[in-house]
Amino acid sequence: MTDGRVTAVSRSATHTFSKAPEVGIRLLEGLGVEGDAHLGVTVKHRSRVAQDPTQPNLRQVHLIHAELHDELEAGGFPVAAGELGENVTTRGVDLLGLPVGALLRLGDEAVVEITGLRNPCLQIDAFQPGLLKRVVGRDEAGEVVRRAGVMGVVVTGGEVRPGDAIEVELPPPPHRPLDRV
């Protein structure tokens, strides 16, 4: 079942906040996006490396739904694909509603397993002042709600391009809701 589409793909070889759009990216099994600074078996995010560089890299691929870009732009915060640091921009998939362990088939070959939510940081406000409050908030119960995309690991490598179909496969129940990784 086709659930959505890839609208853009991006990467950066250095630890920049935004990633440059590409005509295609290659996902490498167990590693992440070829040529991206976050490629690797162990964690590559600088703050996490400082804590424990041996942690497994549960953030190999960052995905954001284009619907968030639409919402932000309507609120006066124009954001293009890749500018929030995502590798894959999607449309038509409720990324934030997926459970831990959901599999996303991107195109003909690549499969990414969703590990959790991106935990947005103050760099977002450095990119556009006030943007952090648009992507992190609290629900009626006072719980933190993170809306800046999801993170995953590459289960099966392959090429991913804009226009590729996305198929979602849910893990067996009971489903665990996403938390920050």
TrEMBL record:
Residues 20-169 form the MOSC domain. PROSITE patterns: MOSC. SUPFAM superfamilies: PK beta-barrel domain-like. GO terms for molecular function: catalytic activity; molybdenum ion binding; pyridoxal phosphate binding. It comes from the Bacteria. InterPro entries: MoCF_Sase_C, MOSC_domain, Pyrv_Knase-like_insert_dom_sf. This is MOSC domain-containing protein YiiM. It comes from Streptosporangium album.
